[in-house]
Amino acid sequence: MNWDQVFASRTARMKASEIRELLKLLDQPDIISFAGGIPDPALFPTAEFQAAISGILSGPKAEAALQYSVSEGYLPLREWIAGRMAQLGVPCDAGNILITSGSQQALDYLGKLLLSPKDTALVGWPTYLGALGAFNAYEPEYDRLDPHANRAAADYADAATAKGGRVKFAYLSVDFANPTGETLDRAARLKTLELAEALDIAIIEDAAYQSLRFDGEAIPPILALEVAQKGSVEDCRTLYCGSFSKTLAPGLRVGWVCGAKEVIGRLVLMKQAADLHSPSLNQMAIAEVAGAIFDSHVGKIRAAYCARRDAMLAALAAHMPAGVEWTRPEGGMFVWVTLPKGLDGAELLARSLQTQRVAFVPGSAFFADGSGRNTLRLSFSRVDEAVIAEGIKRLGALLRQM
Amino acid sequence: MNWDQVFASRTARMKASEIRELLKLLDQPDIISFAGGIPDPALFPTAEFQAAISGILSGPKAEAALQYSVSEGYLPLREWIAGRMAQLGVPCDAGNILITSGSQQALDYLGKLLLSPKDTALVGWPTYLGALGAFNAYEPEYDRLDPHANRAAADYADAATAKGGRVKFAYLSVDFANPTGETLDRAARLKTLELAEALDIAIIEDAAYQSLRFDGEAIPPILALEVAQKGSVEDCRTLYCGSFSKTLAPGLRVGWVCGAKEVIGRLVLMKQAADLHSPSLNQMAIAEVAGAIFDSHVGKIRAAYCARRDAMLAALAAHMPAGVEWTRPEGGMFVWVTLPKGLDGAELLARSLQTQRVAFVPGSAFFADGSGRNTLRLSFSRVDEAVIAEGIKRLGALLRQM
Fold first, then answer.
1. Structural domain count of chain A
2. Global confidence as pTM
């Protein structure tokens, strides 16, 4: 059978990610890897999950845990999340929360909700690779979102019209973003909001790393800044995507969207048609463990990752040659390195694997336009301090030779 | 904010299902409900899941159970499923299996893979409501698939061209289908395959109820019949969607697609972009419980549902007035009732709720063209035999008055 003639046109945009293919090759014990960017499993609250699930499956909630459930998600979990959102400056209730299978699913659903082919999505240069992957299925165009540039709204709108669609949303990760580790300051958040107002578009605020702040002052989410302006989440254009993947456990696949009920209602219908609901047991387990230990557990994770970030920044300062620059993240899992112009991250990786056995992700994959060849992403989340020092030292030595 | 101007055009097809809204109203203790169509939670292997999960989270697999994982799914589970597929006449390996979050997600992904707007999907009149919901997001047209009609392939192709697209697939549930309870005989399966060959389209074979056969002779899946013709699953156009929701537990959301590696590879990329992977812990738990007790457990479920089907068929024979017809399912959860022309299932439901406190689903919702007003779906899966007898008796009494 010639499958190409029955595949939908959108499949042309679904390609194997070079990075993910690369990462598969890096899983060798003698490699020091700054590549992955996933949580350290030693920090999972495994015993707490075991106790919670054991209790659920031996008690009166067992049948509900294994049965079909509602598409919007488990009510006590939605209520707990609504409480956290209120602490972040977004007073809301369970009706403003949809549970998704990780925040990756939230990005997929929001692309599905908002993008017709040829519509424009505004994204950072660079941005989260998984967001581009999710949106690509809906065949959008991309334009560069840069809250620090003074580009007029009309210019964005005209560019989108020329491409055959309309600007539909601005996507951004505001705290310790993947891949740069950078945090958007309050002025830039407000400017993004202003741009969205002028274009009358949605904002997709990816807050996957929000809880992982090590130091510096917390800045309110864009959604909170918008609620402060408008008085109610129901009047807001920002859709906030949260996740338990970086705080409790990614393998359970529990995330959420917080936004106006008008939008949440649409997303509930979409989820009903797409996978009925996220697993009931997983939502119950997350609700119990989050309710019992969220703050203390996240405190532990922050301390561990903070020590690793410190080790990485110290090693970069000690070993990188002049002309190499890097970000100083206040949280999260990533440092973003910019090499002198002319150097190529992919080439560096090839040489590094050969001679130094140190891995990282070349940065160009995170750019919707394929630029950024002289950048790379380093993750410190799964490597202990001594190994970080050694790996960065080797990388510095290699760069001095280039 | 005026959300309508940023919503994608596909959202026009995402509507609240009248049935699901209706079902919410029926959850009252004094109502005898033949409406739902979900498994009886008393039949879940709860203790086995508790033991399996407890073992996983206290042993060496704990970290993997809570960590990110690969998009294709947990290898031991895929291997177990491949073994079952071989028993059904489909020799294959783990590379032919994608794990999905329930078979509902498989339907969503297959719609996403195959349907561009205005393409045609062939579906039964009636068909599974959730399949129409999943496909609608991709803005297809529908045409009627009737393996017993002798409609020429060219006629299907011309109708699709006139609607602005191409026929992409035939969707059907072959064993004890939701909603009719009917099983497609071998000749009709072969005829469907022939039609698909002539149109050069895919077949989506929904096998959600396949394991729930009470009596009669098992008929090979369409995919097995096709493998017998072509020699290898790699040359087949049939994509088989399976599920653990009716056999072990729906709340864990584990299903699968079995098909040619060329298609599975595409679906893996799609899943990676859409939700990364189905929850690791859930896949491990299903693999352990299925490996230990699948056949014996399904035997218990079949015996329980068989007794309920028998009670329902006996009660229908005893209490239905002349002119009412119904199917005699060899498995599954549903009996499909056809009322004399002129009677309306929705009207009957309104009167039944008022005077008899008996609920069911009016059949017209299952027709892509809104026809079938004189039909209704009865589910026997969650009602014990005595209550079934009483409910059908009341329904018969009401019908005699109409």
1. 2
2. 0.97
How high is the pLDDT of residue A29?
83
Claim to verify: residue B23 and residue B142 sit in the same structural domain: no
Q: pLDDT value at position B150? A: 87
Q: Contact A332/A212 with Cβ under 8 angstroms?
A: yes
The answer as to whether B219 is a domain residue is yes
Contact: B130, A20; criterion CB under 8 Å: no
* Distance between CA atoms of residues B318 and A7, nearest Å: 51
Asked whether residue B39 falls in the same domain as residue B59, the answer is no
Q: Which of B44, B57, B282 sits opposite A63 (nearest CB)?
A: B44
CATH code, B337: 3.90.1150.10
Q: Lowest-confidence range among A148-152, B27-31, B67-71? A: B27-31
Q: Residue B257 is part of which domain span? A: 48-293
Same-domain status, B144 and B99: yes
Q: What pLDDT, on the 0 to 100 scale, is given for residue B51?
A: 98
Same domain, yes or no, for B67 and B191? yes
Claim to verify: residue B126 and residue B272 sit in the same structural domain: yes
Asked whether residue A17 carries a pLDDT value surpassing 80, the answer given is: no
The confidence band for B239, taking pLDDT boundaries of 50, 70 and 90, is: very high
**CA distances in angstroms from B218 to B3, B185, B194, B214, B351, listed in the order given:** 51, 10, 21, 10, 39
Is residue B287, in this structure, part of any structural domain at all? Answer: yes
pLDDT greater than 80 at residue B396: yes
Cross-chain residue pair B57–A49, CB shorter than 8 Å: yes
Facing A66 at nearest CB: one of B49, B114, B136: B49
pLDDT per residue as tens digits for the range B170-198: 999 999 999 999 999 999 999 999 999 99
DSSP letters of B107-175? HHHHHHHHPPTT-EEEE-SS--HHHHHHHHTT--EEEE--TTS---HHHHHHHHHHTTS-EEEEEEE-S
**Residue B2 included in any domain:** no
pLDDT at A15 over 90: no
Boundary (domain end) residue, out of B271, B293, B315: B293
pLDDT exceeds 80 at position B353: yes
pLDDT band at B119 (very low <50, low <70, confident <90, very high): very high
Query: ipTM of the assembly?
Result: 0.96
- C-alpha closest to that of A101 among A214, A235, A244, A307: A244
The answer to whether the Cβ–Cβ distance between B67 and A263 falls below 8 Å is no
Chain B residue with the nearest C-alpha to that of A15: B269
A365 CB neighbours in chain B (<8 A) are none
Q: Give the per-residue pLDDT at A4.
A: 94
The Cβ-side half-sphere exposure at A63, using a 13 Å CA radius, reads: 7
- Contact residues, chain B, for A16 at CB < 8 Å: 269
Q: Which residue of A has its CA nearest to B40?
A: A67
Output the domain CATH number for residue A132: 3.40.640.10
Residue A134 forms contact with B (CB below 8 Å): yes
The whole-angstrom distance between B100's CA and the closest CA on chain A is: 9
State the burial class of residue B25 (Cβ atoms within 10 Å of its Cβ: 0-12, 13-18, 19+): exposed
Q: Has residue A4 been placed in a domain? A: no
For A95, A119, B110, the CA distances from A140, given in Å and listed in that order, are 29, 5, 20
| In the predicted structure, residue A147 carries a pLDDT above the cut 90 | no
Question: Which chain B residue has its CA at the smallest distance from A117's CA?
Answer: B8
Q: Note whether B62 contacts A: Cβ–Cβ < 8 A.
A: yes
Domain boundary among B293, B318, B347: B293
Confidence of residue B149 (pLDDT cuts 50, 70, 90): confident
Phi, psi torsion values for A10, nearest 5 degrees: -65, -20
Residue B21 and residue B133 in one domain: no
Whether B281 sits inside 8 A of A50 (CB atoms) is: no
The reported pLDDT for the residue numbered B358 is 96
Do B306 and B246 sit in the same domain of this protein?
A: no
Hey, is the C-beta of A231 within 8 angstroms of any chain B C-beta? Answer: no
Q: Both A287 and A357 in a single domain?
A: no
